[in-house]
Design brief:
This protein has 16 helices and ten strands. The protein is an alpha/beta fold and 448 residues long. Helix 9 packs across helix 14 and helix 11 packs parallel to helix 14. The protein binds 5-phosphoarabinonic acid. The site of 5-phosphoarabinonic acid has 14 residues, from loops. One of its GO terms (molecular function) is monosaccharide binding.
Length: 448
């Protein structure tokens, strides 16, 4: 398939017969997922999304991105969790590394900045200061329309827009991505005439990057969302042909990580060797963690950025508690390459690699780590993307979404709900004195 999945380094940890013996469970998980008879089946809209998306809305997204490009230096994207991480991961992966520091002309697209993904007053105030004297638009993204973090940020940026452009001017710069009929954002959009995009009912937050949730911020940053969808659609086709783990890499990955988990490898690290993949790791952590960590079980997902983190947590991975495994995401062809300069004097001892390119060294480093970690009893799998482009990214997004859906069913949980995220919200509301939470307020304050 287009991205390569390599399980060859698992040999010391998993015997071939184990893969045969889990096949019936994978087949059952595949049937559950594809028939819509499994737990959480109301949230399977992501499966056919790359083929079956609203083409009229897609064109509106492209038109909105053009309009934003024509009148804004900055697009402020407000959202959290599934309404944030996909777009951030995609833009960081597709942008050149320092695009945030380029001028509008150099970047050839508006700068996309994010807020509403924490409750930091510093962050919000700094961003307000940064955009206040620039032309900007706002994309507020909230499926429920009531999430506290983006709601607070939206109040702040809506006020700023109105101050700067007046009510009508502000309305023309607000793009709302939300539920088709309910929630505060939808009410605001209807009342003020904001351009609105729909988060489909059947797609949960962490599976929503290929809906307008991800597509508008990605298009606004100047990336080709058609290619992104094409990549995802290719993956959809490739991984729907067979449920056999020897023919379906997404299913093989799902099966293998469950085999490892059942042997006590409780934590998976998604490893990258490109700083621009850091947020892909964040996106994947939510996808895996929110889908699988429930009913007091599930693989705990981590991420690491190598070789940076080899000089920090590398020690622990090599030599600490042996409950880890790694999935390495590699990019075959770097966007750019650079040669190690040749010097007459060899003070730094690099003469043996001078004249080679830096990516060559990166690949050798990752090969070396692969063997060292395997020797240190950390099983490794490798997912290789051919290039750092939209098509590869779309393909990889679908690979991981499908694998996590199957993986959740393999572990006997509902991969598509997230009951655990409500507990902190209730406590926060109680402590903030939200109406309706009076009893909880008293109880929590006594405990504090
Ligand atoms: O994946 C999820 O369901 C969550 O991470 C949500 O995306 C997140 O809580 C934001 O929710 P909303 O889009 O309703 O503001």
């Amino acid at each position: 398939t287009y991205i390569k999945f390599d399980r060859s380094k698992l040999t010391p940890f998993i015997a071939e017969n184990e893969l045969n013996e889990i096949q019936w469970q994978v087949t059952a998980a595949d049937e559950l997922l594809r028939s819509g008879k499994g737990a959480g089946a109301d949230y399977l809209g992501w499966i056919d999304l790359p083929e079956d998306y609203d083409k009229e809305e897609f064109a509106r997204i492209q038109a909105a991105a053009e309009k934003i490009a024509s009148n804004s230096e900055i697009l402020v994207v407000l959202g959290i969790g599934g309404s944030y991480l996909g777009a951030r991961a995609a833009n960081d992966f597709l942008n050149t590394t320092f695009s945030n520091y380029q001028t509008r002309e150099e970047r050839k697209a508006p700068l996309v900045m994010y807020a509403g993904n924490s409750i930091s007053s510093n962050y919000l105030a700094d961003l307000v200061d940064f955009v206040a004297d620039k032309d900007f638009s706002v994309n507020v993204i909230s499926k429920s329309g009531t999430t506290t973090e983006p709601a607070i940020a939206f109040r702040v940026f809506e006020e700023l827009l109105v101050k700067k452009y007046g009510r009508d001017g502000a309305n023309a710069r607000i793009y709302a991505t939300t539920d088709k009929e309910k929630g505060a954002v939808k009410v605001g959009a209807d009342a003020n005439g904001w351009e609105t995009f729909v988060v489909p009912d059947s797609v949960g937050g962490r599976f929503s990057v290929l809906t307008p949730v991800g597509l508008l911020p990605i298009a606004a940053a100047g990336h080709d969302i058609k290619k992104l969808m094409e990549g995802a659609n290719q993956a959809r086709k490739d991984y729907s042909v067979s449920a056999d783990v020897r023919e379906n890499d997404a299913y093989a990955y799902a099966a293998l990580r469950n085999i490892l988990y059942r042997k006590g490898k409780f934590s998976e690290i998604l490893v990258n060797y490109e700083p621009t993949l850091q947020y892909f790791g964040e996106w994947w952590k939510q996808l895996a963690g929110e889908s699988e960590g429930k009913d007091q079980k599930g693989i705990y997902p981590n991420s690491a950025n190598f070789s940076t983190d080899l000089h920090s947590i590398g020690q622990s991975i090599q030599d600490g508690s042996r409950n880890l495994f790694e999935t390495v995401v590699r990019v075959d062809k770097p966007r750019k390459n650079i040669t190690i300069p040749s010097l007459d004097a060899d003070l730094d001892g690099l003469a043996y690699i001078q004249g080679k390119d830096v990516d060559f060294v990166n690949k050798k480093a990752s090969d070396g780590v692969l063997l060292a970690h395997t020797d240190g009893n950390v099983p490794n799998m490798i997912v290789t993307l051919p290039a750092q482009d939209e098509f590869s990214l779309g393909y990889a997004i679908y690979f991981f979404e499908l694998a996590i859906g199957i993986s959740g069913y393999l572990n006997g949980i509902n991969p598509f709900n997230q009951p655990g995220v409500e507990s902190y919200k209730a406590n926060m509301f109680g402590l903030l004195g939200k109406p309706g939470y009076e009893e909880l307020t008293k109880e929590l304050e006594a405990r504090l």
